[in-house]
Fold each of these.
Amino acid sequence: MNIHIMTLFPEMFEGPMGSSMIKRGREDGLLTLEYYHIREFSKNKHQKVDDYPYGGGSGMVMTPQPIMDAYRHIKSRCKGSKPRTIYLTPKGKLFHQGMAEELAKEEELIFLCGHYEGVDQRVIDEIVTDEVSIGDYVLTGGELPAMVMIDAIARMIPGFLSCDEAYEDESIYSGLLEYPQYTRPREFEGNKVPEVLLSGDHEKVRLWRRKKSLEVTAEKRPDLYEKYSLSKEEEKLLKKKK
Ligand code: 6GU
């Protein structure tokens, strides 16, 4: 997958996109990241990229010319005719795991990171295929949301996760939160690891984990729990005492 990012602050991406799993994915050739500094595309003699809003009001609006020129430059380097182009905005559709899985199937993705009071609407009408928000709060720009999305999308690319990191039984994917995890030592500062995890009985461990998942979801995310339909086995598990 080739990811193209239009931004006024490419340096913000260096740490998060150059560390840990994303770094490895890039080294393994599973994804490429390219940054396009919007300011460098400005034809204004002072390389201006924003201006006052027509109709008045506070703040500045990003002007169309540098963004459109950056976009055309990117498109000339892309496979396919209309690459998915994502504009990060608190006005967008809420990002979720299903969206990450769907976007992970694309060969090319373009991200447009806005700043100030946003981007001239004509740019959005012309090039944007998806307007996305990462949650109901306001951030100073689209860079952090873009990185959040790229992280979630990258790990859904086939081959990114090893088999034992397989995502089928992780939080959210199944509709439930994950069960609690423990590692050595067996006792730490007086607190013991649940006995069943030391038993070596795989079936008992599986049932214990499923029960914990259900309990933790009911307690912390009643909204998820309500949507989840219990299997026969799960109903039995919940009826059993302790
Ligand atoms: Cl995508 N952008 C900004 N500026 N703020 C946000 C957001 C996006 N998602 C949540 N808050």
Amino acid sequence: MKIAIYPGSFDPVTSGHLNIIRRAANIFDKLIVCVMVNTGKNPMFTQEERVELIRRVTSDIPNVEVDYSAELLAEYAKRKGSCVIVKGLRAGSDFENEFQMALINHKINPHLDTMFLTAEHQYMYLSSSTVKELGNYNVNLSEFLPEQIIPDFQRRIKERRQGGNSK
Ligand code: ADP
């Protein structure tokens, strides 16, 4: 069974992420979407919340599993019996960084390869941080976020604005 890992911060999962998930799930027998700890970012949603949001938007895809981990990705993949990491590649910005990460992961675990799926044109410039920025304005978010999570996102934006929640 070919198992692939799709890692990321998914804070929150966007329509661009979901597009990659659907396409990767069509290629592999099983796709594990893994929320990784990213200490450099001040997250909007906790890891558990992000997992729950991804589970909700992928509930119709039977071969997708959602998990979170603080492990080194190369170690995590080994433990899960996976030899492929899937990454989405957007125009320009992602390449340098992702290329370096792919080489490092392969160095740490020589059985591990990284496969890149190019972003669909309508999601090419979409990132979680852009969506968080847009959330502060009165913009229709349905092109950027899966419908099922828009209320959660708007609620969190409001909480943060009111200062009642430090997330
Ligand atoms: P973001 O950059 O949106 O915060 P993550 O850090 O969670 O996203 O990225 C997880 C993975 O999803 C990475 O491989 C990233 O390149 C990919 N990705 C993010 N946004 C898109 C998009 N709009 N289209 C395709 N891939 C994407």
